[in-house]
Write a structure and sequence with these properties.
Elements lengths: L6 E2 L8 H7 L27 H6 L10 H4 L29 E5 L6 H9 L3 H9 L3 E4 L11 H10 L2 H4 L8 E2 H5 L2 E2 L12 E5 L17 E4 L3 E6 L16 H9 L6 E2 L8 E7 L2 H12 L3 E9 L6 E7 L9 E2 L7 E14 L3 H6 L12 E9 L6 H8 L11 H9 L16 H13 L11 E8 L4 E4 L7
Parallel strand pairs: 10-16
Antiparallel strand pairs: 1-4, 2-6, 3-5, 3-6, 7-8, 8-10, 9-10, 11-15, 11-16, 12-13, 12-14, 14-15, 16-17
Pfam family, one: PseudoU_synth_2
Protein name: Pseudouridine synthase RsuA/RluA-like domain-containing protein
InterPro entries: PsdUridine_synth_cat_dom_sf (IPR020103), PsdUridine_synth_RsuA/RluA (IPR006145), RluA_PseudoU_synthase (IPR050188)
């Protein structure tokens, strides 16, 4: 039965069994909850980047771009009434609304061709999605979510029927769970066995700043084993789940003209800038990971706060849920993660002026613009996701421009007991009442910043200071 750890091998069914079985599904796509209700969607018009600008930046696109393709107007209408658009480049200035499609292969053909026909997408666009790492496959359909409709559950059961699975060659010798693991599709001409599951991120998250940066000027150091990069804000270190093309590792590799791609050893938030170490080979990547685990790597940050944060060590506990916003509590809570940082210095600096805020798309989030901001030097003692941002906000001193945590900090400033995990939290009569309060607290947080916030990884060192590197001046100076 599905879900059993038994191996799935051949059966005694005749050779035409699988073709007969799938003939009843022709023209039907396996659609999971959350997928769009229609197969056709408009690919929104994109903000053009000139061909000359790409050439000046010395950027090699993932696919060849001709000058005529670059200047093609998105107002041209195709025969189906939607704007004609065939490539992922030029990069749009804003991200399109998320769109994820779920399909099951019903006839063997090159994956690019199959997706193009199934979703009515231009073949070149699908080829770019595959290059961006936005297409995944699994030999067996993943389990439907708890919110799936009865019809969706029925489709899942049909596609994972033991009678069908026992006849599929690709899952011979694999357990059911092993066959459900997803992997990136890497080749446009790859063909998959009938019954294979496909997940297509039709609108991958884009990073237009990658095309605006002089990447060579951001290189701090190059050694035989690693490269130290001054990461720009508004970029991803190693890519997102649907875009491994537009990231620091890829563009730094190109800027240095390296034969092999640089590898990520650690992460900082997209909206954070500063020192990042990229390995030149897998061996050093593993070595640096071990140094981080052994607490041999030290990171200093500059944080531009909206209010003063006195010197000292700050301790909080973070809820171990892998999604934002990250909730923290001053009181110990069982299984919550320890968060510690030390503020080494806090000094007054001018609040960023309007031209700088506009350049880096700094949002005020309703916080009044002041004459002074507070630049804090922070020693990160534990490295949790969003740790400095969440801890500073909990102290009533959110990072300037942090559109995720600043609105909640502002709300708590106006109504101190609104934070169910804060100093002035209310006493709740039941766990359900507290959970409702937590959900309401989460809703007060905003979205992830577009480009930059007042946070910079200003220094990284390891091996007791034997290796030490500093980033340049932060954007607010």
């Amino acid at each position: 039965m599905p879900g059993n750890p038994m191996s799935l091998g051949p059966s005694n069914f005749g050779p035409n069994f699988i073709n007969t079985w799938f003939s009843s599904f022709r023209g039907t796509h396996f659609r999971l909850i959350g997928a769009p209700t229609t197969l056709r969607r408009t690919l929104a018009a994109t903000h053009s980047i000139s061909y000359n600008k790409l050439v000046r930046a010395n950027i090699t696109s993932p696919v060849s771009i001709s000058k005529s393709e670059t200047v093609a107007s998105s107002t041209t209408t195709s025969v189906n009434g939607y704007p004609e658009y065939s490539r992922l480049l030029p990069c749009p200035s804003t991200n399109l609304s998320p769109r994820i499609e779920h399909l099951v292969v019903l006839e063997k053909s090159p994956v690019c061709e199959y997706i193009s026909k199934s979703l009515d997408l231009p073949p070149l666009y699908v080829a770019d999605l595959i290059h961006f790492g936005a297409v995944y496959y699994a030999l067996i359909c993943p389990d439907p979510p708890v919110t799936a409709t009865p019809e969706q559950v029925q489709l899942y059961q049909q596609f994972t029927s033991p009678e069908l699975l026992l006849h599929r060659r690709s899952i011979k010798g694999k357990t059911f769970r092993e066959a459900q693991k997803t992997f990136r599709v890497t080749c446009t001409e790859e063909s998959f066995e009938v019954g294979t599951y496909l997940r297509i991120h039709v609108h991958p998250k884009r990073f237009p700043r990658c095309y605006e940066i002089d990447w060579k000027s951001r290189i701090i150091a190059v050694t035989e084993s690693y490269v130290v990069l001054d990461k720009p804000a508004g970029t991803s270190v190693g890519g997102s789940s649907d875009n491994i093309e537009e990231c620091c590792a890829t563009f730094a590799t190109r800027a240095l003209g390296l034969t092999y791609p640089l590898l990520t050893t650690h992460q900082i938030d997209n909206c954070t800038e500063g020192c990042v170490v990229l390995a030149r080979n897998k061996k050093y990547c593993s070595t640096f990971h071990k140094k981080i685990r052994d607490k041999m790597v030290k990171k200093l940050y500059l944080a531009l706060a909206a209010a003063p944060v006195p010197r000292g060590i700050y301790t909080h506990y973070m809820r171990p849920f892998n999604f934002a916003p990250r909730l923290i509590s001053e009181e110990y809570i069982d299984r919550w993660l320890l968060c510690q940082l030390e503020v080494l210095d806090c000094k007054e600096v001018p609040w960023p002026n309007s031209s700088i805020r506009e350049k880096y798309q700094i949002e005020d989030c309703g916080w009044p613009v002041e004459n002074l901001a507070y630049e804090c030097t922070v020693d990160l003692l534990t490295g949790r996701t969003h740790q400095i941002r969440a801890q500073f906000a909990a102290c009533g001193a959110p990072i300037i421009g942090d559109s995720m945590y600043m609105p909640a900090s502002l709300a708590e400033k106006a109504t101190p007991n609104i934070n169910p995990l804060g100093k002035c939290k209310e006493e709740y009569t039941s766990e359900d009442e507290k959970n409702i309060a937590i959900d309401n607290w989460i809703a007060l947080h905003g979205k992830e910043p577009t480009v930059a916030i007042g946070l910079r990884a200003c220094q990284i060192s390891w091996d007791s200071g034997e290796h030490i590197y500093n980033a340049g001046s932060p954007w607010w100076r």
